[in-house]
Amino acid sequence: MLLVFYLFPFGQMKVIKHSEQVLKTALISKNTQLVKLYENLESREKRLLNEAFQPDSVLFRPITLHSESDWISSHPEPTQDFEQFYNDPYRSRPTSRKSAIYVQPIGSFGDTKVSTEDYMKWLKDYCEAFYYGLSVKILEPVPVSHTGCAFRVNEYTYNLQIHAGDLLKYLKKKKPEDAFCIVGITMIDLYPRESWNFVFGQASLTEGMGIFSFARYDSDFYSVSYKGRLKNVKKLPSADYSVFDGYYTPAINSMLLLRSCKTLTHEIGHIFGLHHCQWLQCVMQGSNHLEESDRRPLDLCPICLHKLKSAIGFRIVERYQALLGWMDEDRSGMDAELRNEAKMGLLKPVEAFKECQKWVLKCLDVLQK
Question: Has residue 9 got a pLDDT over 90?
């Protein structure tokens, strides 16, 4: 498949630009059955999805690579078009009996202003809007000690880390009967094996499980003043989990919430069978580092949206309305109790979502013409 790279001035960035025909085929396919499937979509849905191969689209833009350390540059992967996704015999599919997405919080979350319960509700509601039509259930948070996982102090960053593989084993035992998938989330850093420095997350796609850490989404994580660094570094007793008592967790601010929403929906997308996107700017793009992750948009490109719609069966306009409703904090009609909460900083911090909100409104404008 031909990719055209445009080199920006000073050789700093590259734009991956596919031809209109390549994008159209990736979205619809040339398979007669799949073409008919696409033709049966609502006309307004096709109008939005067709933006994928419009060269002047302001909604869906080509991917820009900023350095050789970006994911596509350093992790060559085959592309996945709609036909490949649709015909994949190994991808997980929600059923009437197994349709719930379960989220298991591990360790403490939140700070003095935001409770674990508030943060989990925000993530739950966002995930239900993103995977519109499926229910998301938050399990009771558990301390690290309940998982029986191995842990260590990172020899470079001096922060606590917990073993990702052990946590997957724990999640497998806890996976409910009606679960499409179960994902664990934590504010504690992860490592997959002793020889690795860290990992953002790890998943077993065939078993519908994943574990993901938001620890490195704290803006101060890589600074020398990071509060999660242990002052007295020593080898920890393997069964003494008291080291996690009162361990630092970052404040839940708007940027951390945005990053959490991106990561959670991206990783669950993999469990649905969506591969890393290389077609257009998309939340399913791979990322090697925080700066690249922050560049990813919050939502799906048309090709990945078409994949997800075929898996779940939602109406696109209703999904966008649900996303907009989650982002829209209309403070004009607050009652006295909510105004007091706003003063205390307890309302959902959606400031970082403002550009995303404007983008969703543009998509709805196309759908509602």
Answer: no
**Mean pLDDT, residues 157-177:** 95
| Residue in 42, 45, 207, 267 annotated catalytic | 267
In this prediction the pTM is 0.91
Which three-class secondary structure state does DSSP give residue 106?
A: strand
d(CA 74, CA 270): 19
Backbone angles phi, psi at 360, to 5 degrees: -60, -40
Q: Could you give the strand order of the β-sheet that contains 63-65, starting from the edge strand earlier in sequence?
A: 4-7, 14-17, 63-65
39 assigned to active site? no
Residue with tokens 């996303």: 323
- Give the residue among 311, 310, 283, 287 at the shortest CA–CA distance from 299: 283
- What is the per-residue pLDDT for 11? 55
Q: What is the pLDDT of residue 335?
A: 45
Q: What is the dihedral of CA 337, 129, 92, 76, to 10 degrees?
A: -110
State the DSSP code for 308: H
Concatenate the DSSP letters of all residues of 343-358 into one string: HTT-S---GGGHHHHH
Our CA angle for 201, 130, 321, nearest 5°, is 160
